[in-house]
Amino acid sequence: MADRGCPLEGAPLPAEVRESLAELELELSEGDITQKGYEKKRAKLLARYIPLIQGIDPSLQAEHRIPGPSQTTAVAPKQQKSRPTTSRDERFRSDVHTEAVQAALAKYKERKMPMPSKRRSVLVHSSVETYTPPDLHSAPPDVTTGLVEHSYFERPQVASVRSVPRGCSGSMLETADGVPVNSRVSSKIQQLLNTLKRPKRPPLKEFFVDDFEELLEVQQPDPNQPKPEGSETSVLRGEPLTAGVPRPPSLLATLQRWGTTQPKSPCLTALDTTGKATYTLTYGKFWSRSLKLAYTLLNKLTNKNEPLLKPGDRVALVFPNSDPVMFMVAFYGCLLAELVPVPIEVPLTRKDAGSQQVGFLLGSCGVSLALTTDACQKGLPKAQTGEVAAFKGWPPLSWLVIDGKHLAKPPKDWYPLAQDTGTGTAYIEYKTSKEGSTVGVTVPHTSLLAQCRALTQACGYSEAETLINVLDFKRDAGLWHGVLTSVMNRMHVVSVPYALMKANPLSWIQKVCYYKARAALVKSRDMHWSLLAQRGQRDVSLSSLRMLIVADGANPWSISSCDAFLNVFQSRGLRPEVICPCASSPEALTVAIRRPPDLGGPPPRKAVLSMNGLSYGVIRVDTEEKLSVLTVQDVGQVMPGANVCVVKLEGTPYLCKTDEVGEICVNSSATGTAYYGLLGITKNVFEDNLVFIVGKLDGLMVTGVRRHNADDVVATALAVEPMKFVYRGRIAVFSVTVLHDDRIVLVAEQRPDASEEDSFQWMSRVLQAIDSIHQVGVYCLALVPANTLPKAPLGGIHISETKQRFLEGTLHPCNVLMCPHTCVTNLPKPRQKQPEVGPASMIVGNLVAGKRIAQASGRELAHLEDSDQARKFLFLADVLQWRAHTTPDHPLFLLLNAKGTVTSTATCVQLHKRAERVAAALMEKGRLSVGDHVALVYPPGVDLIAAFYGCLYCGCVPVTVRPPHPQNLGTTLPTVKMIVEVSKSACVLTTQAVTRLLRSKEAAAAVDIRTWPTILDTDDIPKKKVASIFRPPSPDVLAYLDFSVSTTGILAGVKMSHAATSALCRSIKLQCELYPSRQIAICLDPYCGLGFALWCLCSVYSGHQSVLVPPLELESNVSLWLSAVSQYKARVTFCSYSVMEMCTKGLGAQTGVLRMKGVNLSCVRTCMVVAEERPRIALTQSFSKLFKDLGLPARAVSTTFGCRVNVAICLQPNRLGKLAEQGTAGPDPTTVYVDMRALRHDRVRLVERGSPHSLPLMESGKILPGVKVIIAHTETKGPLGDSHLGEIWVSSPHNATGYYTVYGEEALHADHFSARLSFGDTQTTWARTGYLGFLRRTELTDASGGRHDALYVVGSLDETLELRGMRYHPIDIETSVIRAHRSIAECAVFTWTNLLVVVVELDGLEQDALDLVALVTNVVLEEHYLVVGVVVIVDPGVIPINSRGEKQRMHLRDGFLADQLDPIYVAYNM
User: Fold this and answer.
1) pLDDT digits 0-9 by tens, 166-175
2) What is the phi/psi pair of residue 948, to 5°?
3) Hey, is 1346 helix, strand or coil?
4) Model pTM?
């Protein structure tokens, strides 16, 4: 970026400027300001201290000091004069590319990049010694700035659609982060334009900026990008096909002629894998065997006395690459029988790469018969019947073996009536497209003949020449030269199979030497392989060759193979003019081929083209910048009798200009299908009637506004360290669409001996090289073990299948490096915080816009009952004594164990007596005085309840604490100790078993057991009465402390007064209509919040009977809770999300068994989930659906909401009891769909179900009687309207009175309990819940006849992530991630400095872990427009979850930073 330390000519800066600069630096390091914003503000600060540069206004200096994209690419490329072809320029050497890559890498200093860390067991290939764990304690790597400081200036200018009208794309500059740096005037005009564009009622911009039109940045064309300037190209005409040479009328006539007049002449020699000639087919044998096959096909195959085949039927030819003889007989046999051969690859397994698409081709061609050889048929996968297995996606086929013994001999005078001169189809060649679909190109007889004649003329073939063919004889050049044209000229073809090339790469050269061959047909790979193997060979000579045809001469790397091959073999007789690259495509057959000079070809030429120009579709020859150039060789001239032109790639196919890249169109009698001007597959450049090829359209990747060629990127990656690292040079490059743009993915096979360090170093070097040479970022670089990429038939990589596996997460890489930060440049602009709008303006703005101020309340308590009872029930200790006196034998509690049997019960009088005994023990044994705090460390049960009331009886303050887990003392005991210490408990009440545990050796290892306060066990305390039961002097005295660990990992204890406690019980009693005659079932933990209130307080207050089901018991008997609900016919039941999840997962398949056992849930009127979070709709819905079979009413499940400041704000009981008869119990919970993008801007916008970016939210329950709720702005504390997301504030008699903190930090949290609005009703005291939510007035009516106000909780304010100026809720990102792959069991996200960290639990094999990295990154980009910084893959169960089923993300974050997660893999996205 711009140089930070600019020369200040020694002038000292004033202190305030230095301070501002330091603040700026801090903002930049914290990620609060973009690099560009930093540069700009800094420049402003320093402007007056920097001396004027050549009289430029200082305000402009800031803008121009940074070499932005607009400056660096502004130099228009000069038109080069064409250079004389004779001067051998040193820069035309083909190794210029490798040199360029090495030079590019040398520019980069070795920078420490964060190595991905991997669990030892996953290190498949690397040695453990070379592995260094990442240094997690230091600051995180700043991976957002790209690999080097200056790499991205050559990028085309990025601008948003909204801000730049088409006509003036350059008028408004934008920084790389999309922050507009325009003037105020233009923004006002823009604002006006935006308003005109949206005729709907526009929001008032003065009050808030509406960000709904959040558009992705669309890359605008760079005004300085090169544009074509040449004149229009003309049509290029090949020389005419020579007339006058006597030629047979057709290929079959030629075959008959050679078969009868030259029967001994060799036609084809097949070689085995050792290079021995196994069989030579003569023209005589060839003719007779083809006739025999034609006769069999026409006369011996019947189906119900009808001939099986009719003329023109398609037949599949399934022959291995090692059997050219049988293939040739089958091909010509079909032509003789007027059948259309469709050559395909031999399917080796039932799941071959691309096999399904081949089946689709066969089906669409109507193929019902396949020809093959005996050996091949034996090797095919078989079904149990012994028949050839049916391949996935293939039509039903009959298989015919065509070895001699299976064929019928035709009568002497028999001859087929084959017509092979017309426009009928001769054969069909298959072609696989970029997406992996397979299509068939039909070649008519006329084209077949014309192609043979054109090739004969272009290559100067003569009778009885020998041709060595290394290519696949089933398709493309291998078929045209080695099977068709060769027969026309009575040539002898020696076919070199792929298996022999693998074993001996020199075999083809040895055969050229042995047979004194005049022509050879190879690919650049074959030349490359033979170079590696040639060292010991002295005696080979290539002097007999007059043509070495390079079939893939159009590839960017073929030129280096050709040059290197010539350098080595020139000393062995190879003449330079012999090398003849050609270009072909299945549709146009041969497009162009270089001719040797003796056939009248011009001398070969090369061109050095600017890669940057090519990416914009423009040809710029030989710019002076040596690094990013592409050297191409010509592929000769157009074929005889053909016309060729170049047309534009997009839009109407107009002719290109001379310096523009386009697609070739061929018009000749020798093209595939008979379309006039069918598109060729290659893009070309023309010069001197020579054809230059820049790359295949199939490999074209369009990123932003530029095009890149897959083959070029492969060539660059190979040039980094070609032999040392990549296994056999196997690299696949393709693009995937993420966030509406193509992203480049590079997958390579690494050598088995590569270490972790090697692979990481290679990956970072490849990134740098591609960035430097192509000026494009690679989105994902993956390394897979050797030989694991899906193979194409001849050993190449099956690109479309590789891409499919990448997208499905089945590629199983062993190393992954993602670089989304550098290549995703079209993210929406970061949100700019508006200057804060005051609360008064907000209210006025809402009124003008017709929005209601968001406030709601439950029913008024005064209307509901006489205050006499409320006064009588002010202290719970009094209530228990009153009940023990008036209804002594009324049962209050039943406790169930895992078997469902009742282990303990308590009636009113029993509970009263047990409480008295506890109180006596506390006063006598514990010597406690009034107001002392007592920790109750009990397992869930009646003992806990008795101990609680015992404390109230003697005036002590109880604190309920979850006992430590015997199997997990190390982590659970410190929490117990902490609560005991923080709450200043003077005594611990517990059972004998827990007492032993607290004093055990194991406990001593975890905490200092000598510092426990007095521990009393209450198992066998004497039966004693207390002299007098304590009565608090006022209702505001502290009743109990409620301690809980929040999801953000903060231990917070709140104080509950006697008044708040009884008010809480009264509200719940009224809301749920609880009476002594009721029974309710509770499956909750009794230690804090609403769970504690329902266990310990409500039964005593309302007199109903509670069936207590400890959630821990469900681990050994999942159906315990539902069975209890059914057995006791509970109409009301409470549970937590973790209980609901256990039932849904554990009982999913057992509903039938439960029904047999008599479980019936039709008694349930309401089942409430107790939670301090956003309602989990998916879970509640699946629970309802699952247990509908057991009679659970559809509308029974609802949610509740409470938090630290008020444990019960909403409860949603269904209609029941007296109120149901009056129809006043309140409406069902409602669900709305909100726009997730608007939520990020704290706006609430309702959308239809199923619309994009919609998020379903369920109402959190009905507001309790006496509770008032308002939505307030988190910063200004002003009231908000209905359409805003804000903090939920609550006012009610049962609010907690404050935090109980040991360090006296009350000031810190005072406003949580006594907040006041900054505008409007400034008198009411509110408690801030710390949760974001909104209110909506629904169409439903509530008990009072007014319209019902629904409260929707969106999430905890502490947990939200502030990223790119927007507010994200972790749960939304996690939901997306969990959907990304079936192996993801759970997910949690948090931020680390300015990076988003995603932790994923892998429910699968460890080697599948790395598949998840790309999928997680993709889904978060697509759905949330966020770049993931770190992906951590861990084992199931690592993400900590509390007893309420909530994720403890901050604990997880601490564990990650302390390196305690033992991750399977940590990927740092660069």
Assistant:
1) 333 333 333 3
2) -60, -50
3) coil
4) 0.75
